[in-house]
Design goal:
With about 375 residues, the protein is an alpha+beta fold. It has 15 helices and 14 strands.
Length: about 375
């Protein structure tokens, strides 16, 4: 789901149609099921403006400020809003709805941080009926692992329908006030999940979209690990190996192919994945690729200076969401065999504090300047 990107969609409140007139304050029951979205007693297998209007009344329409296609050729969204029901739909100007959202609760903190024009793109009233996912309280349908990493959004799926819940900024503000390291440390406990569970209104809004069947293409083969055709380096320390690959592949362009995690992820056939959804853990398939990548021994002579920085390209290949606030890539120790091939290594700039005492000592013992 990309609701948080659409939130920036510029609309033109002045050009909006009049707000809905029927059934002010009408209460509805909405349930997300595997078969479709059930509103009261009607099951909608596909979402359209006409079907929603028949159930919810006449909507307020907010066209995009700029109706021309964007730089990618995509038509900007038109918002169709049922203010009295607390429901909003995204369309491309036609009848088909690409996403449905429901305003579940008032959120003073969100109101304070959101401009008046942006708020006009949301329903003016809160949904007053009953909203469920598969007939259940939405909180009960969210996987435990997802709850334990609660921050801004939580997702749950039923059949081909995905519901993305925006956490209530007022009730769950403690989550936003934590730095990443604190949230990460608590993600293996129930502390974050319990903040959500304890909130009277844990969710401000839910965005519902239909997941199109995934088309699987055969892998092209370009991301197969190259075969070694000459002597290669053997480096026992994986984090040190990454530092060497960073220098040779991303800094000097001497080691090919230059890895691209997004292209790699989309070229895995049935095992393709979205690397941005992995979270804050090393992607196993990427780790395996770098671990097996042959590094020609002759390239050791090209390593004179290493820069250990949390912003290095290679770390974001392994953990695209990584912000450098943990020790996932710490070099805790180095052996004489690890360092032996790098006879011209003279300096290591440890900007990110990656070197442990043992590794630092080993480098200095070989005459390497460590800063």
């Amino acid at each position: 789901m990309i609701w948080f990107r659409r939130r920036d969609n510029k609309t033109n409140p002045a050009g909006a149609s009049p707000p809905s007139s029927p059934a002010t304050g009408a209460s509805h029951r909405i349930d997300v099921t595997a078969a479709g979205i059930r509103i009261d007693h009607t099951l909608l297998e596909a979402l359209t403006v006409s079907a929603l209007t028949a159930l919810l009344g006449t909507p307020r329409v907010v066209p995009p400020e700029d109706p021309a296609p964007d730089e990618r050729g995509l038509v900007r969204s038109t918002l169709v809003i049922w203010d009295d029901a607390g429901v909003r739909a995204y369309t491309r100007g036609g009848d088909e709805v690409s996403e449905l959202s429901i305003r579940l609760a008032e959120d003073p903190a969100w109101d304070r941080s959101t401009s008046r024009d942006a708020r006009e793109g949301h329903p003016r009233r809160v949904f007053t009926g009953t909203f469920t996912v598969g007939g259940q309280n939405p909180l009960e349908t969210i996987p435990e692992a997802e709850l334990r990493k609660a921050y801004i959004f939580l997702e749950t799926k039923v059949g081909p329908w995905e519901s993305t819940f925006s956490l209530h900024e007022t009730a769950c503000g403690a989550l936003r006030s934590m730095v990443f390291a604190e949230r990460f440390a608590k993600s293996n406990t129930d502390e974050l999940a319990n903040i959500v569970r304890a909130a009277a209104h844990p969710f401000r809004e839910v965005a519902i979209g239909h997941l199109a069947p995934k088309r699987v293409k055969k892998p092209s083969g370009k991301w197969q690990v190259p075969m070694a055709t000459e002597p290669v380096l053997e480096i026992a320390s994986f984090p040190f190996r990454l530092a060497i690959v960073q220098h040779l592949m991303f800094d000097q362009a001497l080691l090919v192919p230059r890895f691209d995690v997004h292209d790699f992820a989309q070229d895995q056939g049935a095992r393709s994945f979205d690397p941005d959804e992995i979270g804050y853990e090393v992607i196993p398939a990427v780790r395996d690729w770098f671990a097996r990548l042959p590094i020609p021994a002759r390239l050791a002579a090209q390593v004179e200076t290493l820069v250990l920085d949390g912003g290095n390209d290679i770390y974001l290949q392994l953990i695209p969401q990584w912000d450098g606030e943990d020790d996932a890539f710490a070099i805790t120790s180095l052996t004489a065999a690890d360092l032996a091939p790098f006879t011209r290594l003279r300096r290591v700039d440890d900007i990110g504090g990656f070197l442990g005492p043992g590794a630092r000592t080993a480098l200095i013992a070989r005459g390497v300047t460590v800063t």
